[in-house]
Design a protein that fits this description.
Distance between the termini: 65 Å
Number of strands: 0
Number of helices: 12
Oligomer: single chain
Strand content: under 5%
Mean pLDDT: 82
Low-confidence stretches: 191-195
Structural class: mainly alpha
Largest sheet: none
Radius of gyration: 31 Å
Length: 285
Amino acid sequence: MTLRLARLAAGASLLVALASMAAPAPDQVERRLQSVGTLIESSSAARQIDSSGEAAARERRDAARLIHREAGAALARGDAAGANQLLDAAAREMMAGVRLAKPEQVAAEKAKRDFAARLDSARALLAAQQRITQEKSAGREAQQATRAIEQQIAQAQALAAQDKLDEARPVLDRAYLTARVSIESMRRGDTLVRSLSFASPREEYDYEIDRNDTHRMLIRVLMAERKEATMPAPMQAAVDQAAALRADAEAQARRGDHAAAIRLLEDSTRELVRAIRAGGLYIPG
């Protein structure tokens, strides 16, 4: 018996001892003992706790079981009033467990919070992408990317408003990643990027790995939206070339030649930009 369960049982017993109320008929308490036992062991509430996998919910059910056993012992001693009070406590513990065993509600609330946070990030990146597009007087591809991001954010919000978060999230992911790769592509070669001070070639290599990963994630999102088993041939060719270049880059990095690895990663990311464009999304780069 855990310390918490023991305290719960002791607390329930104390409540019984302090209670001053007329004792119900023993046969009524006997029927209630059976009904609370059913609630704890085989009701839909019990199945909900079993299927939830929620440790806190199972602990409350274990407490209810312990108190229920105490109630049975009290009734056997002829203490119907005490047993009835213990059954009240057992039922309360069980229902507290049921309230904890609603993972679908918990997951839904978390999904909403995650979506809202991702939406804020996507909006912030869109604003940055729009600002950089204006600053650099970027061309048609950057402007097309802006419109695509705006449309994706609006579509994701519309789906979320209909409680279709499972459909809204990948759309929002595409908007977020499109904005990110668009910004990175426009900044590439810009004085701002050139002025970045990396502590070591390894640090710059890690930066390029992250940039490459972002483009790869965007391709996965594009393919998920297309719902096609295979990529279009031009897209697949660019992805394959990008993968080969990245493998070479990682091999150079393992040998300690991070400068060479960086150049290979830049080439790999350029191939991914080609793949993204072949997939129908025109980003600068």
